[in-house]
Amino acid sequence: MSNASLEAAPFASSGQPQPGAPDNWKRFFSFSTDHKVIGIQYITTAFVFFLFGGLLAMVMRGELITPAADLVDRTVYNGLFTMHGTIMLFMWTFPVLNGFANYLVPLQIGARDMAFPRLNAVAFWMVPVFGVILVASFFIPGGPSQSGWWAYPPVSLQNPTGNLINGQSLWLLAVALSGISSILGAVNIVTTIFRMRAPGMGWFRMPAFCWTVLAAQLIQLFGLPALTAGAVMLLCDLSVGTSFFNPDLGGDPILYQHFFWFYSHPAVYVIILPVFGMFSEIFPVYSRKPLFGYKIVAVSSIIITVLSAMVWVHHMFASGTPGWMRMLFMFSTMLISVPTGIKVFAWVATVWGGKIRLSTPMLFALGGLVMFLFSGITGIMLAAVPFDIHVNNTYFVVGHFHYVIYGATVMGVYAAIYHWFPKMTGRMYYEGLGKLHFALTFIGANLNFFPMHPMGLMGMPRRVASYDPEFAFWNVLASLGGFLLGVSTLPFILNILSSWVQGKPAPANPWKAIGLEWLVDSPPPHENFDEIPVVISAPYGYGLDEPLVASPSGELASEHN
Amino acid sequence: MNPLLQALLENWPVSTTNLDTTTTAQGASAAHAGHGGHGGHGGHEEEDHRMFGFVVFLLSETVIFLSFFVGYVVLKTGSGDWLPSGFEGLDTQEALINTIVLVSSSFVIYIAERFLHKENLWGFRAFWLLTMAMGAFFLYGQAVEWMHLPFGFTSGTFGGTFYLLTGFHGLHVLTGVLLQGVMLGRSFLPGNYERGEFGVAATSLFWHFVDVIWIVLFALIYLWR
């Protein structure tokens, strides 16, 4: 690491503004084309929406702390769960992971920027635009969409106000814009990974994170257009009066469900695959061991992409789906646990017997792994048609996907934020606050989402503002967990803000990690590399005596650990 | 990595569509990446990534059309008689003329491109303009057909899918013609092709794409009874 920081020294004195350094904060409000600025813009914007979506969830948990519907009006409650789901998916998980992809992929593959920097900025600036459209629907007559984040017709076609501009049409507009932004981003990221890898960085020298980002962005490219098509048709039904999905006029509401889930199930992999990549980056660093079965882990991401296009009907087992279809999709759904299981096995084998450092990123990654495993088990339960029919639309399903999305994705993102924070900002975060954040988050998440499983098995339906008093015990627990999760963001925000402003300056490679991004200064200079590195070995060479890159100056710029 | 795949990936359309790969690459990185021609990606050629990105985008765009096609097939097969009452079916004859014009314009635009490769600018412009005229003829024919149909966008699932598919495709034809106009205008800029012919190559590829979609669409809507 000493070599790396020596190498990086000339950049620091070059006077170039360093994206990420605190004295440089105004850049984050500009139309910058630097992938690092855009990455941080994505992450920060997404986090603001995460807080907003979390606030909506806490109002819901406040409503559910008593069996009666006494805190908010039922229509408001409908709007709350619709907007909570929509914001968390389209405004938090997609943008935050796009942010990491933007920031890390060019650094990890040894490129100076993304393939299309201006397109990159355009794709980012659409995020606040459709975010504002979505939030604006709270303030129009009739309030926001109330049809849940699926927007199934005929519920979504009701339009009680009769206005052209209503909550549902704004929702559809925002989702369509989000789709365009995501496709532009995907074109950019896929082109970057295919075409801009540094010399020597063959496919099987590419870090696992880039593999998972590629796998996820392929889903965006080839799944998302189906949702866009469905959204356009639904918008026509709603605003113009066509009858694609309107059963009263001969339309087919189930067709919409197919369009929706053909994308929206793979969308789950869009938000979990990059997190798998983060796990694959983080476990080796804090265990001081190479990633177990790197090639298989890399390829399993692509297998997940392919399989993800063949499982969507498992969301529709209760939609009058014919028997053969149920069998087929039950099988394909269970099949997807194979590549996923390979990954879990590889991470456990990586950590096993390693020199483990339980610093904050590792804690979050381990916590995320445990919760992901749990959600994987309930996932296989849900894949079985008889069980799925039994718990369909109950809190069991809600509990399952919150373990995936909060337990794995949010925990993984937190891990990644801590892990790459020194790289992004050039400052070290406070370890104590980080550990406190982890404890609150892990306890809060389990307290919030575990009780949803028993209450679902008892038969409590989702999306209701009031319920039978027999479910009260588990609901009180879940609500306490929900508020704890709200509290858990406070030490995080305090930590990030204060360490960004006055934290200890970070060296180029504070974790003694191996990877191209750790060879440059923290934060990396504009255009990342003074000279494009030549990669001469596979990633994750922990404990091996192989340099990662060839050094023209004769001195090795890689790490031996 | 598989050498065949590698060759495929590295020699993707880009190198065949540029007059001069090296000047193109430098121009592209200067104009597009916003950092003034650093070059020096070592062993990696500084290639133009735009064509690769554009192909990826078109593949994604194909999925929207596929989704609409699937919607059409599902709605058609799912309903008994879905034609609006009193309507016997679409007239194939006019549409066939339109189809022939659009499909042949794909060959015309190819000839235009060949002229550009041979640096015959006026030949390029003539055939390029002919392509635009054929595209405009197609749009005109489409508009005439729309105006004489006895049903509208909201006339059941048939009217809905008909106007959705032809309208969405027509929007692409219009985009293509407008892009062609821009490229024609640019051909008069001095030194326009020193940075390669990405614009022309991409517009041409887009035009072929629009064409292929129309053939499927024509078969589905007009020929399949």
Brief characterization of the structure:
The complex is a heterodimer of chains A (561) and B (225). With 561 residues, chain A is mainly α.
How would you describe the overall organization of this protein?
The complex is a heterodimer of chains A (about 550) and B (about 220). Chain A is mainly alpha-helical and about 550 residues long. Chain A is about 65% helix and about 0% strand. A two-stranded antiparallel sheet of chain A has the order 1-2. In chain A, about 60% of the residues are buried. Chain B has helices at about 5-10, 15, 20-30, 50-80, 90-115, 120-150, 155-185, 200-225. In chain B, helix 5 (about 90-115) packs antiparallel against helix 6 (about 120-150). The longest helix of chain B has about 30 residues, at about 155-185. The radius of gyration of chain B is 21 Å and the shape is elongated.
Give the SSE layout.
The complex is a heterodimer of chains A (561) and B (225).
Chain A: H1 2-12, H2 35-63, H3 74-109, H4 117-136, H5 167-195, H6 208-239, H7 253-287, H8 294-308, H9 323-335, H10 337-351, H11 360-383, H12 385-391, H13 395-425, H14 431-449, H15 452-458, H16 472-502, E1 534-535, E2 549-550
Antiparallel strand pairs in A: 1-2
Chain B: H1 3-10, H2 14-17, H3 21-31, H4 50-78, H5 92-117, H6 121-148, H7 156-186, H8 198-223
Question: Which descriptors would you attach to this protein?
Answer:
heterodimer, A: 561 residues, mainly alpha, Cytochrome C Oxidase, Chain A, two-stranded antiparallel ribbon, 16 helices, 1% strand, B: 225 residues, 8 helices
CATH superfamily of chain A: Cytochrome c oxidase-like, subunit I domain
Which range does the strand content of chain A fall in?
under 5%
| The first-level CATH class name of chain A | Mainly Alpha
Largest sheet of chain A: 2 strands, antiparallel
Number of strands of chain A: 2
Low-pLDDT stretches of chain A are: 1-16, 554-561
Shape of chain A: globular
Elements of chain B, N to C (H/E): HHHHHHHH
How many strands, which pairing sense, and closed or not: the largest β-sheet of chain B? none
Structural class of chain A: mainly alpha
Work out the helix count of chain A: 16
Instruction: Give, in spatial order, the strands making up the sheet with the most strands of chain A.
Output: 1-2
Topology as H/E string of chain A? HHHHHHHHHHHHHHHHEE
Q: How many beta-strand segments of chain B?
A: 0
What is the arithmetic mean of pLDDT of chain B?
82
Oligomer category: heterodimer
